[in-house]
Structure formats: structure tokens, C-alpha cells
Amino acid sequence: MNHAYRLIWNAAQSAWVVTSELAKRSKKSKGIICAAVCLISSLSQAGQVNVNGTSIDILPGTIIDTGTLSGASGGYAIVATNTGTITSDGLLTLKTGGGNAHAVFMQSGSTASLQNTMITTTGGGSHGLDAFNAGSLITIGNSAISTGGNTAFGVRAVGGGVINITDSNVSTAGNGSYGLNVTGAGSVVNAAGVTVATQGNIQAGTSAAGADAENGGRLQITNSTARATSITTSGSNAYGLLAQSGGELAAAGDTRAITVRTTGANAPGAWVVGTGSLMQLTNVDIQTSGIGSYGAAGVGAGNRLEINGGNVTSSGESSAGVVSNGSLVVIRPNASSQGTTVQTTGANSDGLIAYLGGKIDVDGMSIVTSGDASRGARAEYGGTLSLANSTITTAGLQGYGLSALGLDSSVNATNVNVVTTGGNVGAISANGIVAEFGASVTVNGASTVKTEGFSGMGLLSQVGGDSSEPETVLTFNGDGNASIFTLGDHAAGAAVCSRAVGASDCTDILSRDVSGEIGPRAVLNLGNADVSTQGASSFGLYTYGRGASLSAQNVAISTAGVNAHAAMVRNGGVLSASDSSLVSTGANAAGLFMTSPANVVGTAQLSNILIAATQGASIMVDDGAADITMLNSKAETNNGLWLSVAATDLVNPAVANLLVDRSIVTGAAITEPEATSNVTLSNGTVWSMSGSSNVSSLRNAASTISFAGPGLARSPGFKTLTVSGEYVGEGGLIEINTQLEGDDSLTDKLVINGNSSGNTSLQVNNANGKGAYTYNDGIQVVQVDGVSNGVFSLAGRVVAGSNEYLLFQGGKSNPDDGDWYLRSEVPVEPPVEPPIEPENPEPPVEPPVEPESPEPPVEPPVISPEGPNPGGSKPSLYRPEVGAYLGNQLAAIGMFQHTLHERVGELDFSEAQRGEDGTPGSVWMRVKRNDFTADTGSSQIDVQSTTDMIQVGADLVHWTDGDSRLHLGVMAGTGKAKTDVRSNVLGYKAKGEVEGYSVGVYGTWYQNAAQPTGAYVDSWLQFGDYDNSVKGDGLAREKYGSKTWAASVETGYAFEVGQGEGKAYYVEPQAQVIYTDYKADKHREANGTVVKSKNGKAVTTRLGARAYIRPTEKSGVRVQPFVAANLWRSSDDTSMSFNDTTHKLNTAKNVYEFKAGAEVDLGSGWSAWGHLGTQVAAGDQRDVSGQLGVKYSW
């Protein structure tokens, strides 16, 4: 049956007591008071309301106060057993005062439903609510629970009990007290809209806590519709949230965060401990302010802490944000994709820590630390940390962004952004991402690192000790959008450091460590990222120590600052870079800088690398030994030095060993006294040498050393490459510049102080030399002070003006000096052994010879400069291109020259066929070929020329006076000439080509136009325009234009000398004068030679006779054979200049011509003609020609 209780005044007890609603007031009675008090005080399970298997309702306004007896346990305010039920909907006040005096105690399946209840307990171990055993249930709302004794819990479910509490306040004041507690399998506390405040400290090893789940119990914390849940602790060692010994605690806010606050020392906001414990936090804001107070932590193996969204903030010293000590911590964004934020402000307060086997798995998180020596996120001593899509910011001194420390510690990060802005204290700086002392760090994706501060390292892999220590590895592999940036002096974008015992600190990047000990192995692998630094002595890549190795692939390195080298290798470190760029900007900032102590060798292996140092050397070695390999790389931008090898420490001067393979380097190479540089160029490497250089030894294997031109602004003047030791040529090429003139010409030079060996090609570029004869040793281009076993040969022709230069070993004055010279003279032919004379020879008897009348001598054709010929026994050496230019000139002048009969054939054939009516006229066409052969240039050059042309014309006007007639016409032609020139001395060849057209007019007067006899006068005027080219062996094709004007006057008289049977014989003496004016464009050859037409005016005369036979019968086809002989004489004034040295083609002045041919009267107005002819002259000059013509007259 239900009973209703109310609070009434008991006069006997002088107190308000709970009674049945049927009870009345009692009278004063001491015995009754005593009996009542004793009853309540003597029973541990007794209560003012004790329900056993029944149900009661407590009326509103009821107050239950159990009172307190000194030294005794207090009674419970409400007790229900055996499925009893208690309900209170109105205002209910419960107070207990003794130890272990719970306000509400439900057990054995009992149920309590309370609203608007005010609960206060003051004794130790006195809980506000206690649901004990399976099936026990307490539901309470809009209530306030307060406990004041030690280990007195506000809400407690145990042994399978369940408590649902909403919109209520829970406070505890005693040490070791929990606001909410659930323990035991099946026990559950559901708290919604609850405010929990605990003030106690630790009690007998038991800490106070705002909310606790343990031993398989489950605590669920949420917000209610009306209120957001908050949990606060103020005592030392007082946890905000606690899951221990297999307990499960879940706190889930909604759009409103659940807040957890702790203010005491060593008071974590959330703590998971024991084995098998679980804590799940969603949209929970945690704040701690005491020293040593973590925001959230998992301690011990088998525990799990989950954080989804929300914020974790700590402000105390040594107060980390989230910690895993052997547990698993998983951090993810909430359902609204809001990530978790962790922020610490105290010194030595890391954002995340995983250690001693602990694991933290993070996605979508923001970590901020501002205290000194506060790391953003770290794994140490076997901890594992995984991060993705997160940001880390640290602002304190010595603050690492992301790090791993110790053996078996590891960090795996993807798409993380790390920013550190603090400086250093002593040897410890604020660094971005660090792996140290046996740990492993791997970073992937679009990750970024930024450090600001002195000696800040973007990436740092470091280890110290001896070589037996474990390997430390940091791998940063971006996706192409990854970047590393440092701002501050003495910083490094990516640094790897192995410190031997007693060595300098890794981050002291300027110290000179004299230790040569081998330290543990430290590795840094960097790929697919941009690395940039700003600050003095700040390096892009930095490797330090004999155990340090840095590998960079597809990385763009840029530095800005004084001495800010793009890459630095110190103390025997190893750098391996591929598909990357090393760019430095700043005074004395090298692309690659290497230095080591004595007996220690640093190593740099560069493959497909671009090195650009705008104000420093591309590669600089200062003290110690360095092995450098460049493969398929470029070092083109620098301060003028691609290699600088220094000896700052004279006890330990630099020794640089370089292999440059399939690469391009630009600049000078300078080796200071006492330093050593051993350079090997191989497999097509090109060294563009912009300044005089010196190396210790040089091996040129199938590579090119190209001296920059003397006229360049950055590298003026001629240069010298000095090899202080051995020079070895293995099919290499050296390209130099020489002002090709006489013996004292300015030139680049290779100087070998040691010995030379092997084979090297030498390419010589003319540097504005005009060409001249070398009278003495010539132009020295290679000097060998030691044993000169090396063989140098010209890689191409060396020409200037009209001169050809050859390379000779040995001077004229000392043929055994071993040096190499350029001379412009005909080489010496091996001497011919004289014939052995027989003993006592009989004098030969010569037959008498009749003297003949000697012909006047004919000058041989020769190409020679104007002025005196060079002296000496060896003539100047000419290049065949001169003959090609002059051959083109000769071909253009003569291409369209002709006689009257070559143009029109036999006039009276066409005149006799004209009709009586109509206006007379005619059209004609002729084709002609000439093959010309000559020797020129002191018999050094053979010239062969072929000219083909076609010409057409028409008579436009005829004037007739009796049988005499005047013809006026126009003509046009096109032609092409090819000239082949060969040097008999060298075998070099040149080809000249002329292609052009002509237009002209002509006029002819005939005394007897229709008769075979009589006089004639013919004249013509032509203009020609030509495209010319000259191509010499090994030289560029040269193209230029030219033009001609030509005029001719010719006369002749034909007369009959006899007749035979059906035929008559005629002779026709002739005379002709031709004037030609040739002009070629001024042309500069690729080698610098300026070619101009010096004098293109020429007068050519012809005297000759023509004899022919013609049939007297005038019907049918008539054939008129003929022969002709002519003497051609030229003024020989045409010439061309080469660098202001004038040359002319001295062909024979008198040329004898013989022709034979026929003219044919075809009838019907058609006539045709043709001939074969030859010309001969002194000097083996020959010309063979052939022509065909056709004409139609009306």
C-alpha cells in the first residue's frame, strides 16, 4: 500500500519528524525521544523513510534530517529495499550528518523518483545518491546535491545500480570525493544538464574527481534541453573526469560544449587509468590551471581515450594538453566536422605526448603552445603519434612543433601545418619537426613547417653518442604543395646531425667542430617540398657529422641572407640530392658549402640539380676534404665562381674531389694556395668558364670547357685556365677565343704546370681578329711546363679574314718546348730523299734543240693580299672560302654576258621568212651551260664552277631603210651557278652558289638584214640581282646579296670569200667591249670576318672572227655550220675585301676561245642555232660551254 509522509513537529523530540499523514502531534516525552533517536542511530541500514517492498509518496515540503550522534554513523534519509518504490515530485529536503550516512539509498531492485530535491550530507563516506545492486534505480531532476565529508560522493551507482540525473547541481567538499561515481559491471549513471563541483584533495591515495567511472561501470554525461553540463574541481590531484579500472565514461555535448574545469595542482581534466578503461569525449571543453595538470590523459596499457571535437586548455606549468602513457588516445572531429583544439600556456607544457608505449591517433586537430620548452606534439620512449589534417603552433623558447624522442618512438603525420615562433636557450632551439636519439618521424602530404627565431630548424633529425646508438630517421615526403620556411639567423630548413661524444651542438651551426669521431646514424629523407630560409647563416639543407645523411628528392631550396648557403655539409656529413634546386641569395651565400675537420671527408651527391647562387659561389669547400658528384646538373648562376676551394685553416686546407658528369657549370674555378681541387669532367659536361681559373688537376673526358668571350660584360678580357698538376684529356674539347692576327695576338690559354696526357680537341673562336701572317712561333694557346704527352687537335677550322690557321706543337724557335701554337702558314711537307747518284756517272749527251720563239710569260692565277707578301720560306695559308666568294663574283659578272649570234643566231634566216604584210617581230629563247676550271691561290686552291642559265627576249620595234634594219628588243633571264673550291694543302672544301635573274634591253643595226653579208652594230644593257651563299667545311653557311649592271657594244662585218658547188663561204670579223659594275652587300661572317665588294668594275674586250658555210639554195631546211675564234681580254680589276684586306681572282688576262656550231633555217618563221665552245688560258684555266637557241619571226 502507498503511504504518504509529511514533516510534522514532534514535541517529545523537540524536532520536526517525518510521519504518516494520519499521525497527530505528540506530547513531550523524554523516553519517546530517546527511543526514536536510538533507533535511527543504531541501524546502519535504517532511515527516516524505509521502504521494504512497498511504494510511498513523499509529500512536497517534506524535510528529512537524520541528525548526528558524536562518534556514530549517521542514518540514511531514505532507504528502499526489495523493489520498494519512492516518489517525490515536490520540494524535498534531505540531510544526513553522520559518517556513511547516505541521503538516498536504493538497493535490491528498489526505485526512487525525485524532483526538486535538496540533498546535503556532511559525514565522511556519506553519499548524496547511492543506487546499489542490480535493478536499483534513482531518477532525479532539478535538484541539488551537496556532500561535505571525505570520500563522500554526490552521486554513486554501484553493483549494477542505475542513476539518471538531470538539470541538477552536485557539489562535494571533502577529500577523495567524487561528484559522480559509477562502479561495477552493469552500473550506470546518466547525467544530463548537471553542474558538478568538487573542492577536495587527495585522501589516503584516493583523489577527488568531478566524475568517475570504474570497475566496469558506465557514466554517460550529456547536456539537457535546459542546461549544459559543467564539471569543476578545485583541489590538488582532483580529476575533472576519471575512468579507471575498466570503467567507461562518455561525455557528449551538443551545440553546447560540456565544460570541465580543474584549478588544483596535478589535477587533470580527464584521466583514463587502470586496464580496460574507456573515456569518450565529444564537444567537451577542458580547462586546467594548476601546475602539472594535464588536460586529458590515458595511463596504462589497454585503456582508450577518445576525443571528438571540443577544446583542451591548460595554463599551468608542466601541464600537457593530451597525454598517452601506454594507452590509446584517438582524436577526431565531431559530427559537424569541427576538430579538437588543444592549447597550453605554461612552461614545459606540451600539446600532445605519447610515451612508454602510448599511442595517440589524431585527425583534424589544432595544437597551440606558448610556454617555454613546450612542444606541440611529441612521442617519446616508445610512444607512437599519428596526426592528419592538423595544425601545430608553438611560441615559447625551445618549443618543438612535432617531435619524437628515443628508441621505438615514432610520429606519422599527414597534411600537418607546424609553426614555431620561439627562440633558443643555449643549445636548444625552437624547431618545427624533430626526430632525435633513435626515434622515427614520417610526414606526408601537403604539410608545411614554419619557424621564426634564432637557430630554428624546420626539420631536424639528430642523435648523439657513439656509433652503437640506434638510428634516428626523419622522413618528410610532400605531395608537391608541402613547404618548409624558417625566418631567423643561424637557422636551417632541413638539418640532420650526428654528434659524437664531446662534439659541438647540432644547432650551433657556426661552430668549428674539430672532432672526427663517428657518431650514431641520423637520417633525414626529404621529398616533394619547397624549402626556404631568411636570415644570416641560415641554410636550406644542413648535414652535420660522420653519421649524418640527408637525402632530398624533388625539393626546391631557396635561402636569403649573408652566408646563407642553400646546402651545407659539415664534419663528414653526407648529402644526396636529386631532381631539386639549390638557390641562394645573399652575400657570400653558396649553393653548396662543405667543410670538415682533418681526416674527415664530407660527401655530396647531386643528380639533376639546379644550383643558383646569385652572390656566392655555386660550390664552396673551405677546409677539410669533400667528395662531390654532380650528375646531369646545372650550376650556371653565381657570383662568377662555380667552384671555390679555400684554405682558411692552413693546417687543414680544403681538398675537393669533384666528378661532374653530364652537367653544365658556369663561372670560374678558384683554388687558393695550399688548397687542392681535383676536377673530373665526363660524359658531355660543359664548363662555361667566365673568368680565369685554376685547379690542381683536371680530367676532361668527352666534355667541353668553353671560355667565355672577351667582350661579355660579366667576364671581360681573355682568360687563362691553369692546371697546377696533371691534365688528362679523354676525348674532351676546349673552346677558346683568340684575336686571330699575328704572333702577338691576344688569346685565351690553357696552362699546365704539370704533365699532360691523352687527346683533347681545341676549338678556336675568332675574337674580332682580322687575320694575319704569323712570322714566328705563332699564337701560343696551350702551355705545358711538364712532360707534354697530351695531343691537342683542332676541332674545327680556324679562319680570320682570308687566312687559315693550323695548330702546331712546338715553336719555331724551340720545336721541343711542348707547347701548342696557332700559325697561319703552309705546313712543312716531309722532305723528299734525294736520289742516290751512281759512282762516276757519265755526263748525259743532250741532243741539239732548235730555239723557238718564246711566247711572252703568263702570270699564274693566285689569291694574294694587296701589298707585300709575307716574308719567310713558308707562304701564307689561305682558306678556300675566299675563292668561293670570288668565284661567286665571277659567276655573277659573266652569267648573262653574250654575243649577238649567241642571242639571235643568223639574222637573214628569219628576215628572209618574213611576210610582206603586218608588223614584223620575233621572240627567242636560249639556254647555256658553262663549266669553268682553274687553279688559284699559289696553287693552294682548285676552283670548279658550273653555270646554267636561260634567257628569253623579243624584238619590239623595227625600223627599215632599204635593206638595212634597226631592231630594238627586251630580254630577261634567270640562272644559277655553283662553285666548288678545294684546298690542295688541307683538303678543306668550300661551295659557292649564285642564283639570280636579269632584265635588259638591246638594239641592233644591220646593213643588209636579209643578206649574209654586210656590217652590223649590236648593243645591250642589263641589270642583274643575285642571292649568294658560301659554305666552307666546318663553317657556317654565309648568305649575302649582290647586283650587277652590264653594257655591251659589238660590231662586225661579214663578206663572202668564195663559192663552191651549191654553197658559199663567208668570214665575219668581230669586236666587242663589255663594261660590268658588280656590287655585293657588306656581310659579316659568323667568325667575324667582314666581306665587302671592293672593286666590282671590269672592262672585257673581245676580238675574233667567225667563218661559216651556207647553201646557196634558199628552199627547204638550210644548215649553216660555223667556227669561231676569239681573244678575250679582261682588265682584271674586280676584287673583294676580307677584314679590309683586298683580294682579287687573278685569272689570266688573255683567254683564247674556240667554238663550232650551226645555224638552221627551219622554215615557217622558225630558226635555231647552237654551239660547243672551249676557252683556254695560262695557269691551266679552262672553260667548256654549250648553247642552244630557237627563234620565231613573223
From TrEMBL:
Entry keywords, A to Z: Virulence
PROSITE patterns referenced in this protein's UniProt entry, alphabetically: AUTOTRANSPORTER (PS51208)
Autotransporter domain segment(s): 916-1194
Biased composition (Pro residues): 828-863
Region Disordered, annotated ranges: 810-876
Extent of the signal sequence: none
Domain of life, source organism: Bacteria
UniProt-listed Gene3D superfamilies: 2.160.20.20, Autotransporter beta-domain (2.40.128.130)
GO cellular component, one term: outer membrane
Keyword Signal: no
Name recorded for this polypeptide: Outer membrane autotransporter barrel domain protein
Organism of derivation: Pseudomonas chlororaphis O6
